[in-house]
Automatic annotation (TrEMBL):
Coiled coil regions, renumbered to chain: none
Protein name: Short-chain dehydrogenase
Stored PANTHER family: 3-OXOACYL-(ACYL-CARRIER-PROTEIN) REDUCTASE, 3-OXOACYL-[ACYL-CARRIER-PROTEIN] REDUCTASE FABG
UniProt similarity note: Belongs to the short-chain dehydrogenases/reductases (SDR) family.
Length: 239
């Protein structure tokens, strides 16, 4: 992708963790970025911080990926502010972890609605604009999207779904010159599942590492598409 300075990205769940790391990397390229959160105050606060640090402009947008009309409104906000959309990063996600005997219906529904249906809504809302710009869609899956574990029924189901969904739409959209990749991180030093990042997480993938990966993919020759990328810590602690 050439001339990053006039490109525009929309990142769902962009106020912290992987989403923020990607936003920082794209802004450093000179791109303009919209980050979404269900909390408008948080989104606008982080966007102001990002704008000061990066070369591009960041805006905060209130949006809930679980609602299609909310995602349509988020795209409309981006178009009103920047006039176009070149990159979608479907990042927003959460995790509820429990054995099937203990998992509640609400926990299951929230996980699937956010992690899987939310990705579908984000893509559907942005797709027409991305076709116009011959843009790029990134989904953030997980190594849990191919590797199951006890207590992960809802999270595994959602991330297996994201991995499969993304690979299918990659095939749907390649002839439209829309590139699609899913990134599947292992352990990342974020606030996910109540974690508080600290020195104990130094061995983990850092959010800026995922940002760097997105930049590398955007810079890749358009004839080549890494469609599914697994990312692991180089040297996790021995058990």
């Amino acid at each position: 992708m050439d001339k990053f300075e006039d490109k525009v990205a929309l990142i769902t769940g962009g106020t912290k963790g992987i989403g923020r790391g990607i936003a920082e990397a794209l802004l450093e390229l000179g791109m303009n970025v919209a980050i979404t959160s269900r909390n408008l105050t948080a989104a606008e606060k982080v966007a102001a911080e990002l704008s000061k640090a990066g070369k591009g402009k960041a805006i905060g947008v209130k949006a809930d990926v679980r609602k299609m009309d909310s995602q349509v409104q988020a795209v409309d906000t981006v178009l009103k502010e920047f006039g176009k959309l070149d990159v979608l990063v479907a990042n927003a996600g959460l995790g509820h972890f429990a054995g099937i005997s203990d998992m509640t219906i609400d926990e299951w529904q929230e996980t699937i609605d956010t992690n899987l249906t939310g990705v579908f809504f984000s893509v559907k809302a942005a797709l027409n604009e991305l076709k116009k710009s011959k843009g790029y869609i990134f989904t953030i899956s997980s190594l849990a999207g191919t590797n199951f574990f006890a207590g992960g029924a809802a999270y595994n189901a959602s991330k297996f779904g994201v991995t499969g969904f993304t690979q299918a739409i990659m095939l749907d959209l390649r002839q439209d010159d829309v590139k699609v990749s899913t990134i599947m991180p292992g352990s990342v030093a974020t606030h996910f599942n109540g974690n508080e990042p600290s020195k104990k997480d130094a061995w983990k993938i850092q959010s800026e590492d995922i940002g760097e990966l997105v930049v590398d993919l955007l810079k890749m020759n358009p004839r080549t598409l890494p469609s599914k990328i697994e990312v692991r810590p180089s040297k996790p602690p021995q058990k």
